[in-house]
Amino acid sequence: MAGMHSVCICLPVLAFLCLSLSWSTVKVNAQTEGTTSIFTCKFETEDICGFTQDTTDNFNWKRTSGHTPSEGTGPSKDHSRDGEYYMYIEASDAKTAQKARLISPSFPVSSLQLYILRFFYHMNGVTTGDLNIYIRYSEGRDGLLWTEIGHQGDLWKQGTLVFYADEDFQLIVEAIRGHQQQSDIAIDDFVLSKPEYPLTCDFESICPLFHQKTITDDFNWNINTGSTATLLTGPNNDHTYLNTTGHYYYLAASARDDGLTARWFSPHFADINNDGIAVNFTFYYHMYGSGIGRLNVYFSTVDTEELVWTREGSQGNGWRYAEINTFTTQTHQFVIEGVANDFRGDIAIDDFCLDEYVPQEMTTNSGNEEMDTTVDTTFSQTKTVPSGEFVKVEDKLSPGISAVTIGGIIIGAVVLIVIAIALGVFLYKRRSKTSSAYLNEDRQVIVEGSTQVGPQQPVNINVYDNVAKFQSDSEQPSTTVTKSTTDVNENAGNDSHVTVLRDDSKA
Known about the structure:
By secondary structure, this protein is mostly beta strands. The chain has one helix at 403-432; strands at 9-17, 20-28, 35-41, 52-53, 62-65, 85-89, 99-103, 113-123, 130-137, 142-149, 157-165, 169-176, 185-195, 199-201, 222-225, 247-251, 261-265, 268-269, 277-287, 294-300, 305-312, 320-328, 333-339, 347-356, 380-385, 389-397, 436-439, 444-451, 459-464, 467-470, 481-487, 495-500.
């Protein structure tokens, strides 16, 4: 893949809050849409936005509104909320395997450019055939960008594909009729854009790059802010802003049976020139709770779906970072799948990022050999896929202090407090054992209370203005005396030094 390499970056910012440390993140060059639209078509006008019928196919696409004529197939209305019309093939007009093609206007290209095509399609019918998207260069060369096969349910699904072009091109939409009449296929809402990498979804607004409408799973991910509804599972905040106002998607396990799945789908990545396409996919996930199931990522092509990354069970109460790098000549996409397990099994995802990837571990080969890859084994593993392709995955703790770490800080603080209290009690008791000393009317030094005087070891007492005080408590050896007295030398005066010995008879 050509072009400058850019990176999805999160910068950790250190903050001091409430006597504890926490991390926040700053997104750099983050783009929710990341695109400049150059072509939009809702098929609301009779000129169908400059699309033309191919004269070399077998039958034509039709423009209509409402339901298609045939029962048990086709949509009941168009996809656009603000529109009415869409394009479709009427299966009763054709025979099995016959083709209908729409050809877009020509799009000029002055230099190598990244494009995203987004559209919606409807493939409802037990005998539905194929829907293909091709790119046609000005020289007449056609390349397959995207394909979908068979019945997809009675719903509009989003198709998104990413590709490079370095010369003028057109797009071709091809529908192939199934073996019976229940095989109407419809299309609507085409948008062609020029994006800039990285392509990101932080779920703070509508994310057009990823979608989850499919019949291959059992339920959908839910958008959320703050904590999930179930205690002791799920995050307390999103990853983007690390607060309760940011959005993320999560799998609500409490209402699901064990083994049910919810799926997200990335755009398709198409390699037009067959020289390989390298993609970097990163995301953040949260898997905390006693009933956590699994989170899987698949490398999906037209014919196969290979599991390339998986986590099962609780991973701690914190956001974690995952990275997957792929290099392949096949049109492919990433499928993110959550698998429900038990009541306390909420799984959350946030901050998807798609970027170019420079596969520096690759060695030059003919394309029929396995790639020689070297990766850091601390957080990663390497899987080799057929025909000189590879998938590299990494996983590590998100920049941020998780609740587990915060819990450790709190426990440490509690231990320090307990130690401080114990030390204070010890010092207080030690002080309470210190004798008081004073001169009585007969100029005797009266020592009352407990002292820490060793056997026959002197305690130094200074007498200042008829007040007797110990010279140094801390330097005295440890023992106990309840009371002791001694006479002060008559000639000592008011500034005298006397010695008190232990009185065993009064100890």
